[in-house]
Design goal:
Elements lengths: L6 H4 L3 E2 L42 E7 L9 H16 L5 E6 L2 E6 L6 H7 L6 E10 L3 H16 L1 H10 L11 E9 L8 H15 L4 E3 L6 E7 L3 E4 L3 E2 L11 E5 L5 H10 L4 E8 L6 H18 L2 E7 L1 H10 L5 H20 L3 E3 L12 H8 L6 E2 L7 H11 L2 H4 L6 H4 L11 H7 L5 H10 L1 E6 L7
Parallel strand pairs: 1-6, 6-7, 6-8, 11-12, 11-14, 12-13, 14-15
Antiparallel strand pairs: 2-4, 2-5, 3-4, 5-9, 5-10, 8-9, 13-16
Helix pairs in contact: 4-5, 4-6, 7-8, 7-12, 9-10, 10-11, 10-16
The structure holds adenosine-5'-triphosphate (ATP) and magnesium ion.
Amino acid sequence: MHAGENKRDSIISTSDASASDSHESSTPFLGVDTQGKASQGSADPVQGNAPTALPGDEIVLARLGEIALKGLNRNRFESQLFHNMQYRLRGLGKYKITQSDSRIWIERKDGPTDTKAVIHAIHDVFGYVSASPVRRIPQDMEVLRNTVAKLGESLFSEEAIRINAAKKSDHVRTTSLPISFKIECKRIEKSFPLRSYDVCCSLGDLITERWPETTRVDVHQPDVTIYVEIRESIYLYHEIYPARKGLPVGMGGKGMLLLSGGIDSPVAGYRMASRGMRLEAIYFHTPPYTGEDAKIKVIDLAHILARYAGTLTLHIVNFTEVQLTMNKLVPEDMMTIVMRRMMLRIAEAISRERGLKALITGESLGQVASQTLEALVCTDAVAGLPIFRPLIGCDKDETVALAQDIGSFETSILPYEDCCTVFVAKHPKTHPSLENAEKAEAKLDVEALTRLAVSQSEALQIQLKNLEA
Ligand code: ATP
Ligand code: MG
């Protein structure tokens, strides 16, 4: 305890109201193996949708974000989210997912829940904001104190501090002593005899008295926050793992991503999937001008995308004949624009066959000649479906950072040729008018070429693989 700090006041940070959830904004905590188990008390009555793990079990708490604000549709969003989570958990046993307030509880039905494995497995599911391994114990102050004492042992004892420092985990905020902490208590179940304030005081005193040398209270920037939620049982946790937020895939319609081997298009797909859109993808290749390596690279990128977007169909279109015809009949400075217009026509034709309602590209305003406003107007003009360009306002650094985060960057920078690089014009027209574009393709039979390309496309199923726990 720092001199002058009022111990009682400083360990208090409570909310007896259940409505607000302030935990989302929390920063990382000391990461430890949470091995301590609460003593087995009497089983709690299960109320409403509340989880049914045995007292003292560990389960996973995930927090809803945007979905919690949905009105009448909320159930549909939750069902889709649970479905998407269940799919990721299928390799880990049988799971029960329930919801109460803005919380989701995940527990294994056929054995103890491996909380770290669950959090890992659901990490790339869109639709929730964070997750925690949570210990569920009976509504009993003595059980709570014993459990906090065990947790404290794994955080504040000299041996634990040495171990945690050696681990250099992302969650270890500091190794310098004393370690600061606070208790944050929410008493949602008002029949619990102690107020949140009293619970915080009791637990705070317990810790500072047991580990006077290694702990101090800090309610503003603690190294560790111990959360206590008093519901039909007591839930105790101290680690919060941020998730990818967004909306569950399946709730935002279906779109066709134009997937090249570059950096931008996988990120564009990720962005649309994060808004709940289910994806298919289309890749144009021009064998033998572009090689098998380039195609395999795109298939690999589609697999990376499937981690977030779920299983998807990848359409691989043989674009060689279209490309060679364009080479003969289209003025060189308009080649890129006409190529883009042909890609969109073909993508739209396949999308309509498949019932997809939007086209998605990785274009960003001003990135290259084909992405000036005038060029984008020329490509938009041929599309009868909306074109989503989620990166339109991003600069390359932002896109690269996201590509690194989602794990596509290293694959994207492999140096295989794309048709856009093989058949690129030396001096493309940067500000074409629609009239220029229409004139440039006047000699092409665009309908026949579109039909030909569609007939020469193959569809690959890109499965979401089981993640290793
Ligand atoms: P990326 O934009 O993915 O980094 P890139 O920079 O090589 O790849 P651009 O020339 O910027 O591609 O093309 C703009 C967009 O057009 C891409 O983001 C992608 O959506 C689409 N596109 C380009 N080439 C192809 C292709 N061969 N197959 C499918 N889509 C493509
Ligand atoms: Mg690009």
